[in-house]
Amino acid sequence: MSGQKFKVAGAAALVIGHCAGMLDLIALPIWVGALVERLAFTPQMAGAVLTLFLLGAVLASVVLAPRFNRMNQRLVAAIGFSVTAVAFFIAAERTQFAELAILHLVAGLALGSALSMVHGTMGRAANPHRLFAMAGIAIGLFAIVLLGLIPQLMIVFGIPALFQTFGGVMAFAAVSSILFFPKVEGGIAEERPPFSRAIWLTILGIGFMTFNQAMVFSFVEVIGRARGFEASHVLGVLIALGVVNFLVPSPLAAILEKRISATVVTQVGPAVQAVLAIIVTSATAFQIWAPAAAVFVAVQIFTHTFVFGLLARLDPTGRAVAATPAMLMVGAALGPIFGGALGENLGFPALGLMACVVAAISISFFTIARSAGGSLKVTTA
């Protein structure tokens, strides 16, 4: 497949934008936990706030992704990250549910706009799979820093530190986008063929897998404390999770790019995710719970790297991968509030059982996509 070779600074700007835009992937437990413990929100209220943020990102991505090739990607990314930063800085001074809900919605709309430009541009790279894997390695390192830093800052400064840190991350992404965001060339990017059935089915498959990710991972910290585990031990697991994400899924996906088919990954990934979800939501022994929680996110990162490369090959215009925020965050948006409702009314083990059902749906979509005329083994556009 042909694509653009970005300069190091341009690729770095995309990686920084990915880390900022995928903040929810690593920060959900701390985010939800802070709202529940420090602002006395119920799990369902906390889930609703995060759902508004993610739904905003989904809406922006749905609207902008089809228009990706007709937009000034650098300008949209810079403005999107800037508005998100302002929204989080304002949120640091607010404690009421309604105010935080509105600010999260605004932040989500802006961030979804920026992230669509980042992922669409990544899809135009000479090797989208490898660039996305590099971004995954970076977000793993970012997670180690973030998950270790934010709890300590909140001990000293309270919940405002959470949103101020988020705002700082977004401001840095805005500056890097203004200075270094790469320009998308014309040619194939000007074409607008309709998406194939295989593309739509693949998008649905990863969307359901992301729903599972958000539904369970949002409450990892809450579940750990409900099981009676020491707060410091739970925090240690979250830091270990960041280390695992940095060292394992993305480097492994880059190494195995030519050695394992996307078909195998998309069949096995959701199943492994479901098994881990059962352990995370049901285990009462820390020695069993901790390893499962620490590798839970890694399964999603590894699988999505292959799916991102696949979609970039199936649609070389970049529009399908520009919709990455939508395909990921629609599941992530529903996950926290759905998980909160299940956990509050039926207990957290119900999340694990639901994860098995959702995993079966995800595998079904990936399987049908394979036979829908767009093989998951495609290697050229």
Q: Which key phrases capture this entry?
A:
381 residues, mainly alpha, Growth Hormone, Chain: A, globular, disordered C terminus
Protein described:
- With 381 residues, the chain is an all-alpha fold.
- The chain has one domain: MFS general substrate transporter like domains (Growth Hormone, Chain: A, Up-down Bundle).
- The termini are close together.
- 78% of the residues lie in helices and 0% in strands.
- It has helices at 8-21, 23-38, 43-64, 73-91, 97-122, 128-157, 160-180, 197-217, 220-226, 231-247, 249-255, 262-282, 286-314, 319-322, 324-346, 349-370.
- The radius of gyration is 19 Å and the shape is globular.
Strand-residue proportion: under 5%
Total individual domains: 1
Q: Please tell me how large the radius of gyration is.
A: 19 Å
* Helix count from the secondary structure assignment: 16
CATH superfamily: MFS general substrate transporter like domains
What fold name stands as the CATH topology? Growth Hormone, Chain: A
Distance linking N and C termini: 5 Å
Q: Helix proportion of residues, in percent?
A: over 70%
Spans of at least 5 consecutive residues with low confidence: 374-381
Name the CATH architecture: Up-down Bundle
Using the alpha-carbon principal axes, give the shape: globular
Short overview:
The chain is mainly alpha-helical and 381 residues long.
Question: What order do the helices and strands come in, and which of them pair?
Answer:
Elements: H1 8-21, H2 23-38, H3 43-64, H4 73-91, H5 97-122, H6 128-157, H7 160-180, H8 197-217, H9 220-226, H10 231-247, H11 249-255, H12 262-282, H13 286-314, H14 319-322, H15 324-346, H16 349-370
Helix pairs in contact: 1-5, 1-6, 1-7, 2-3, 3-5, 3-15, 4-5, 4-7, 6-7, 6-10, 6-11, 6-13, 8-12, 8-13, 8-15, 8-16, 10-11, 10-13, 11-13, 12-13, 12-16
